[in-house]
Amino acid sequence: MFWLLLDLGAATTPHGDVHRAILAITKKMAQRPNSAGLHLRRGELHRIHRDWVNAERDYRRALKLDPSMQVARRALARMFLQAGRPTDAEREVRGFLIAAPGDADGWALLARALETLGHRADATDAWRRATTGTGGRRADLWLQRTRAVARSDAAAALRDLDVAAAGMGRPVVLDLEALALERSLSRFDDALTRVRRLASQARRKASWRLLEAEVLEQAGRTADANMVFREVDRQLREGLTRARRVPKDWHTRTASGLRRTHGTRGDTR
Amino acid sequence: MNLRTICVGFTLLSGVLPGQSLPAITRGPYLQIGTPTSIVVRWRADPVQAGRVWWGTSSTSLANHVDTTPGGFLGIEHSAQITGLQPGTRYYYAVGLTDNTVLAGGDSDHSFVTQPPVGDHRPFRAWVLGDSGTANVNAAAVRDAFHDWSLGREPDLWLMLGDNAYLLGSDSEYQAAVFDMFPKTLRRSVLWTAFGNHDAGSALASTQLGVYFELFELPTMAEAGGMPSGTEAYYSFDHGNVHFVCLDSQGSDRTATGPMATWLQADLQSTAQDWIVAYWHHPPYSKGSHDSDLELELVQMRQEILPILETNGVDLVLCGHSHSYERSVLLDGHYGDSTTFDPATMAVDGGNGAISGTGGYRKPSIGAAANEGTVYVVNGASGSVSGFGLLNHPVMVTNLVEMGSVVLDVNGLQMDLRYLDRYGGIRDGFTLAKGGVTPIRTHGAFIAGGAPWKFDDTGTDLGTVWRDPLYDDSTWPAGNPVLGFGEPYVTTPVSFGPDPSNVYPTTYFRRAFSVDVSPLSITKLRLSVGYNDAYVAYLNGQEIARRNLPAGSVAYSTLAVAPNEPTRYEAFDITSALPLLLQGGNLLAVEVHQDGPGSDDLVFDALITWEGADILTDPACATGILGNVLTVNGSAGGIGRSVEVTAGQNISAAIQIPGSLGLVADFALFGRFGHSSSMTPFPLSGGGALCFTPIFGIADPSFFTIAASVPVPGTVFPTGPAPWSFVYPGGIPVPGLEVLIQPAIAPLGSTSWLSGNAIRIVSVL
After folding, report:
1. For labelling, which of A216, B250, B541, B565 has a CA lying 20 to 30 Å from the CA of B35?
2. ipTM
3. Which of B645 and A8 is assigned the larger pLDDT?
4. Does one domain contain both B594 and B735?
């Protein structure tokens, strides 16, 4: 079952344009017409090329040649979902998950199919399955899961994120997602605690302090926000005198923040 | 495996009982996740037993230890994190078993230097390999060329850009392509790796499962700087004043809104480092064996990721994948396919970036300033080359189908990148300086490849007079290298005489060359020779190197002790010959000897190259500092003096302030301690006292300075007790310590020393 480890999409990404790659594989297939692997690879190329008919044909041929190659079934499900056929996608991926019940990508695929079909509760359950086991270490799946959950229960999504982040060494992408949720839930104290923790990890604080000022402003703490905007403004100006520049939008955000919070500074660039 | 025990403060006994199988290291040790205060030591041992690492600052006294529990997929991987280390310090280590059986180490070959403090400006070198995983003679040739050229200097860190083990990145392939190929570097320098498409044959980035993720321990929680990525597939770390960012172009979401891009943005915006270097596998620009106009990974990295990198001030991008070497101009804002490149708007500097060419690249700001330009390098020929592809991407200034590796030297606010080919020759290079710093030469060639040699192939015994610089060689013919006979790559044939069964035993070669830098500023002088079968080289009449010949006097008829078939230019450290080198005209003379009368070939070419930590070349500096102004320990002359010192020795220095200087500058003496000849920075912490206070809060204790504002021209500086002096504090068990003292100037009010003779210091921001 080692093939389950393989990142099918990436492993079959063509070198050269899709047409050229399809031709090359077709040429190889002339010598090895019963190679399930070649059919699977060509199916992926057809899928990338959005040639759904030929993609399905190749995937099914691969499965027929090697019924143990269930990853072709997952690929087929992905193709169906991409082609706007979520019911077919659900059917195929459920079949795949019987053979590979621990496959995180399979569960994620099922969750997306269920979401498309409007079965949100089932989708949430599928996301939960996707983020257990090996999927529990994947920030991309956690982000998708919490976004799905947040549509109906942002607080639950936030709890999920914090559990995930703690288990993964607090990747900054999960913290940023949690920060957005906290702001949407008006949990400003929590958001400020989080952004200050992030700032403490950074050697360059300005962007995090700027974010802190924006959270303070959103929380209605205008005077505090203004003070932090001013501090950021000072840091950016000092940086300029030492030939240290920052992205332009930092200046823009600082200047507009100062204006909104009754600062006296104009454009800090 | 040679089992030994070492003294770690008590007597060690072997724990192996009669009849028991002997434990053995089957992989490593190798170093991972280095920081200023910690490092991870990995190894694999069989059979399974608990492991132990010992370490200390002397190879004979490894007084500390930490134990490990074997883990990993097979349960035989050991990983030990050593903490509580001092920055920039050499440590020795050994690995073994908890019963104190040592399996490897406890010698000078098992040591590492911890990273300098974050933000530190001291020079360091990174070695960069791309697609090196062929595990064959080609990869070995690239490796050997680097080690030979480096003259024993290990890189401070090294990077692998993916496709580190062909064909599928399996465990056995990694054993051959990495662990058996680079054992010495693995145990002495921290390796940082990127994930390539062939590595993905046995590993999956999204779950961090499989061989690649089993073998390498990479930061996920900002253990070595940066912001936490939560994955080993992409990560960042700091080394000195550089922030390194490793991306995953193979198995992670490459979109601008994906987790990797989100992390990247946060990471880049959080670094305060002077430099940012990013690396990954698939190049955003290439017309080598892969085409960046056509292939998904390459296109996405360019379109989705590059805008984030450039907006956040990345200086250098290193990639592999195409089995060639391609290097761009200083570039910004080119995200379309190659036909959309507009040099007028996208080339920040369209030159070649070489000081000896169109000039070094300059970026006005320090740190992560947006859109001031990035240099892109495809370095995917460390194991093979592929001739496919037109190698005509319009952003590229250099395209080579030649195996090699990248050498990256960072020295404060200047970065020098060179491409070293498998034969030991430098094939490309550029300099990049930031913050208004004027790029200065830190290396160069006195004898470069390609220029003609004069030679005498008449079969005449010329005795010794031909070595003399004043010898009249005007009647000698001249020819471009390679010179010789019997090999298809020879450019200029030389005669072997009338009888092929009785060839001339010796052929003479001469080359006049000019030195345009102060020899006192040179820290490393290298002679690289391709030869068949033996030679003696003379610099200005004095022997400086001989190979493959017996000791003692060498006559016209002396034969090589053995045949030699060259596979590359063999590099020899001739730094000790520096006193022979003259500023201005010099002469290298070489006699090449055969191994016998029946020899059917002869090959010869030679190069002389130099390295200098800080070389005075800037005309603006040259006008400020005059020669013969400095006196150190009573010896005057030149613009810098280097003296050997011993503990307790008094060193005195004084400068006659040039009358022509005028009241335009601050003036300073800069000093630097180092090991003899190499001038490796050497910290003075740990004892002693200097009779002055460093200026500008310079963090590096290997530097010292004494300075004054607006000295009076025509007087001696420093004023006060004359001469100015200090006592080397001693207490450091390194023989042959050396101090280099040089003057420098800075415009009034500036914190940048223009001259940079000894050290170019920019204030710590």
Report:
1. B250
2. 0.80
3. B645
4. no
Q: Are residues B392 and B274 in the same domain?
A: yes
**CB contact residues (below 8 A), chain B span 238-257, against chain A:** 250-253
- Predicted confidence at residue B5, as pLDDT, reads 34
Domain boundaries, chain A: 1-130, 132-185, 188-269
Q: Would you call A203 and B366 a contact, using CB atoms and an 8 Å cutoff? A: no
CB contact under 8 Å between B270 and A10, yes or no, is no
Higher pLDDT pick, A219 / A13? A219
Q: B163 and B131 in contact (C-beta within 8 Å)?
A: yes
- The rounded percent of chain B whose pLDDT value lies above 70 is 75
Sheet strands (E) in B360-457: 361-363, 375-379, 396-400, 404-411, 414-421, 426-434, 443-447, 453-456
Structural domain including B196 reads 124-442
Q: What is the pLDDT of residues B408-427, one digit of tens each?
A: 999 878 899 999 999 999 99
Q: Is the dihedral of CA A199, A200, A205, A209 positive or negative?
A: positive
CATH code for the domain in which residue B54 is found: 2.60.40.10
Instruction: Tokens for B536, please give them.
Output: 């003696």
- CB < 8 Å to A239, chain B: 367
Of B567, B588, B611, the last residue of a domain is B611
CB contact under 8 Å between B222 and A176, yes or no, is: no
pLDDT tens per residue, range B36-60? 999 999 999 877 788 999 999 999 9
Report the CATH fold assignment for A1-130: 1.25.40
* pLDDT tens digits along B2-29: 333 333 333 333 334 445 556 689 999 9
* First-to-last C-alpha distance (Å) of chain A: 58
* Chain B residues with CB-CB distance to A140 below 8 A: 206, 252-253, 258-259
Nearest chain B residue (CA) to A45: B296
| Residue, of A49 and A219, whose pLDDT is higher | A219
B222 in the same domain as B106: no
- B5 lies in some domain: no
What CATH number does residue B358 fall under? 3.60.21.10
Residue B210 touches chain A, beta carbons under 8 Å: yes
Name the residue facing A7 among B206, B271, B297 (closest C-beta). B206
B60: left (phi over 0), alpha (psi -120 to 50) or beta: alpha
Longest dimension (CA), chain A: 76
Which residues in chain A have their CB less than 8 angstroms from residue B202's CB? Answer: 5
